[in-house]
Amino acid sequence: MIGFLIALGVALVLDLLLGDPHSRFHPVALFGRAAGGVEILCRKTFGNGIFSGLTGWLLLVLPISAAAWAVTRFAGEFAPAVAAVLLYVTIAPRSLLEHAEAIRKPLSRNDLAAARRALSMIVSRDTATLPPSEIVRGAIESLGENLIDAVNSALFFFAVGFLAGSLPGAAAAAVLLRCANTLDACWGYRNERYLFFGRVAARVDDLFHLIPARLTLLAVAIAAPLVGGRISRTLRTGFRHRHDHPSPNSAWGMGAFAGALEIRLGGPTVYGGIPEPYPFWGDGRAELTTGDLLRAERLTTASTLVFCILLIIGVSLCK
């Protein structure tokens, strides 16, 4: 248990101090490039169907996860440090906050062009003509959704892996989650090219985020009073809107943020010039300000810490 706490704490401190380095040599970036090569190989060998995508998924994810297990297993007394580094490269809480800040600061100076450009770096919706309130909405929705994908799911897998196989299991599970999530980002599209080849990557990613997404609602609710929200309202809002998104997991985080901040998110959103009629999430204030984005950033940090506490409690009870 001590090793788990050390690894978890060191990983969070590393992220706080170093953030997520934007480099083509970052392990996730290298994995993404490897995915391109494996895709070409699998399509040439097995075609463009589901089996080909499954083969590519297995070829990429299993060896790297096994390598993470082996490196940690044979690190001896340095196992907590190795597990911490591996967990660090799978989470990105500081990166979420930096992206939000890059939107909030120019927006507070009324530099809409810069704020729109910054938002376009993290969302796929059209941003060129968005008014300030919609820019803030997009940024907050990104925080709510990516808190699950970029932070909490890896932390959850790290905890479950520790219960199953001590620190080597924790490291392997966190790496497994990040590999699967990256393959979803590479292959998990509902278009002609990836409809079948990317189906396994998309479905596995949905499955892996299932429990972390629901636990994220609980963590956000517990953290809500720290930003002026209410636990009961956050839980009700997040649960009410849990199915109001094509993704089976995303609305749990975005609905939770809407409830905790007592604002309204969602609604019609334009992608590539085509409006998508998303429902509204939350019944709070619709006109959003940079102050709401700052509160959302604080909620992201607080929710991450609460989520870690919940995991520590769970691990201590199960060990």
Describe the structure.
The protein has 319 residues and is mainly alpha-helical. It has one domain (2-318). It contains 12 helices and 4 strands. The chain has a two-stranded antiparallel sheet. The chain has a two-stranded antiparallel sheet with strand order 2-3. β2 and β3 (274-276) form a beta hairpin. α2 (27-46) packs across α7, α5 (93-108) packs antiparallel against α7 (132-187) and α7 packs across α8. The radius of gyration is 20 Å and the shape is globular. The model has no long low-confidence stretch (mean pLDDT 93).
Sheet-strand content, in percent, reads under 5%
Number of domains: 1
Major sheet: arrangement of strands:
1-4
Number of strands: 4
Mean pLDDT: 93
Find the structural class using helix and strand composition: mainly alpha
Order of helices and strands: HHHHHHHHHHHEEEEH
Outline type: globular
Uncertain stretches = none
Computed Rg: 20 Å
Cα-to-Cα separation, first versus last residue: 8 Å
Fraction of residues in helix: over 70%
Count the DSSP helices.
12
Q: What characterizes the major β-sheet?
A: 2 strands, antiparallel
SSE layout and pairings?
Elements: H1 2-18, H2 27-46, H3 50-73, H4 79-88, H5 93-108, H6 112-120, H7 132-187, H8 199-208, H9 210-223, H10 231-240, H11 250-261, E1 265-266, E2 269-271, E3 274-276, E4 280-281, H12 290-318
Antiparallel strand pairs: 1-4, 2-3
Helix pairs in contact: 1-4, 1-7, 2-3, 2-7, 3-4, 3-7, 4-7, 5-6, 5-7, 5-12, 6-7, 7-8, 7-9, 7-11, 7-12, 9-10, 9-11, 9-12, 10-11
